[in-house]
Design a protein that fits this description.
By secondary structure, the chain is an alpha+beta fold. It is built from twelve helices and 19 strands. It folds into two domains: 205 residues, CV3147-like fold (3-Layer(aba) Sandwich), CATH 3.40.1610.10; 135 residues, Beta Barrel (CV3147-like). The protein has a seven-stranded antiparallel beta sheet with strand order 17-16-15-14-13-19-18. The protein starts with a strand and ends with a helix. It holds the Pfam family S-Me-THD_C. This is DUF917 domain-containing protein.
């Protein structure tokens, strides 16, 4: 167990924004929520799942909806209490700990804010090792864990509970309700015992996010024998896909998602080239000079060429200079069940999944 304070939150938000693969919402908004909660209620205890008993109840807390909308709506301090009270009342059990369901700007931060305001510890684990746009897209689905009952609340106080026949139906019904509630809600699903979290969760994700954030912040102080770019790729284990200037951004909010494409014109050693990155909240496919170099479930991240700060999809702007980065995904996503759940063909991309390290050979 260790404590998460304000300086830790800064690093976690930065690293999680990278792992969010362009999605998960604006890290600045999430960071403000987490810092405000810690200032008001005290630091949060971060624990390993092995510190819990098998039957302890762990509750994920997340925002569902289009990230751009959350920047306008925010999350109130009472929403967490009402939501967790409803969970405890439904199960008739005491809630032991909070956990993030994904790594991403907002959804790495909301659990910290919730844990602080509820006086509960947060478990160093999630269900993705990155961010994905749909509720069923978690490692717990691969493990056969049910997402329902799902409980949600909006900023107006509307609350709901749903039980469905499978995890995809949680996504379908929640997305419709989310749209009716103004585009985003705070929710909890995949309420689990610690033994289930231990078996199927992506462990150490908060620590990983913090380490990445710390490395990005200190990138100007990299070893003398390396350039900042070389240090970034060495530390992250990522692959350089393209460096360019944003020439166009096509974006629309539809059905509770941000859909779109960013078009890049090459700069530096990529001058004369072009690239496109398609996204649905998260980046899904990177095409460079007509060749696909990375697809979901591997992570496709855009970072600032000077600071290496991640650029989420809702912050893409004309003229911004970015480096397109590919990161290998968590190993469960490369299984048959994982690819069926989050592979390129699920999102309508006409290509099979090939690991980013294979696509980038040579």
């Amino acid at each position: 167990m260790r404590k998460i304070g304000i300086s830790d939150i800064e690093d976690i938000a930065l690293g999680a924004a990278l792992l969010g693969a362009g999605g998960g919402g604006d890290p600045y908004i999430g960071k403000l929520l987490a810092i405000g909660a810690v200032k008001e209620c005290g630091e949060v205890s971060l624990i390993d799942v092995d510190e819990l008993s098998d039957d302890d109840v762990v509750v994920p807390v997340a925002s569902v909806g289009a990230p751009t909308i959350l920047t306008e709506k925010g999350v109130g301090s009472n929403e967490f209490t009402k939501l967790i009270d409803m969970v405890g009342s439904y199960y008739g059990k005491k809630i032991t700990a909070i956990m993030p369901i994904e790594a991403g700007g907002v959804n790495s931060m909301l659990p910290i804010a919730a844990a602080a305001r509820l006086g509960l510890p947060m478990v160093d684990v999630d269900g993705m090792g990155r961010a994905f746009p749909e509720i069923q897209m978690v490692t717990f689905t691969i493990g056969g864990v049910s997402a329902s009952p799902m409980l949600f609340i909006d900023e107006k106080g509307n609350m709901g509970l749903m039980e469905t026949i499978n995890n995809k139906w949680v996504e379908n019904i929640c997305r419709a309700g989310c749209t009716a509630c103004g585009g985003s809600v705070v929710s909890t699903e995949y309420v689990m015992t610690a033994s289930q979290v231990r078996e199927f969760g992506v462990r150490g994700i908060v620590t990983r996010s913090q380490e990445l954030g710390r490395a990005i912040r200190g990138i100007k102080n990299c070893p003398e024998n390396m350039t900042p770019e070389e240090y970034f790729f060495d530390y992250t284990g990522g692959f350089r896909l393209f460096k360019g200037k944003i020439a166009d951004v096509l974006r629309e909010t539809r059905g509770g998602f941000n859909f779109g494409k960013v078009v890049l014109e090459g700069i530096g050693e990529d001058k004369g080239g072009h690239a496109e990155v398609d996204f649905q909240n998260e980046n899904l496919c990177a095409t460079v000079n007509g060749e696909i170099l990375a697809t979901t479930p591997d992570l496709i991240c855009l970072v600032d060429t000077e600071t290496f700060t991640p650029v989420p999809t809702d912050a893409l702007k004309y003229g911004k200079r970015v480096l397109v980065v590919g990161l290998p995904c968590y190993h469960l996503w490369r299984t048959e069940k994982g690819i069926e759940l989050v592979g390129p063909r699920y999102f309508g991309l006409n290509t099979d999944y090939i690991p980013v390290e294979e696509r980038c050979k040579g």
